[in-house]
Amino acid sequence: MVDVSAGLRDLLADVALRHPSILELGCGTGALSVALLGDGAGSVTGIDLSPGSIALARRRADDAGVGERATYRIGNAALEPVERYDWVILDRSICCFPEADRLLDTALRAAPECVALSVPESRGWRGWLNALLWRAENLWDLVSGGCPGYVHDLRRIERRLAGAGLLPAHSRRIGLWFCGVYRRAS
Which domain holds residue 34? Predict the structure, then answer.
């Protein structure tokens, strides 16, 4: 698991107390969701565009002995129909979508209690540096056939979450990344 995902996992340390159902939008190879199942999550559903990542996520869950509580499916996380989950996780996935709002719409439809995310920091000197670095990487991706990445305005994302009643509970920076957990105001 990469440092950013591990940092987000640390912010979700109460998983064993709550045993939540979790939806991970843009789950990749399932490293975070499988770890959260091991930590005490009740169930996980992961959605990702990559068939190879989904296959690896399923194997990872089975190898960890939590496969019966894990469901992974191929799909566009911004467009998939979703049911309600206790928590929704967006770990290093918002930066893969040109329109963050579509992915946030899906997350907010599914999340009555908690949204956790990790994104490239867009504020302050980290934001300035991220904008420069991600532009350079996108130029390389254009030449090499890679996928573009995006540094979305974190203030705007937080306003959307607040508008849905989800307020900051825990956050931290890891390098040029921001990790945050937003919970429903009680």
Answer: 3-181
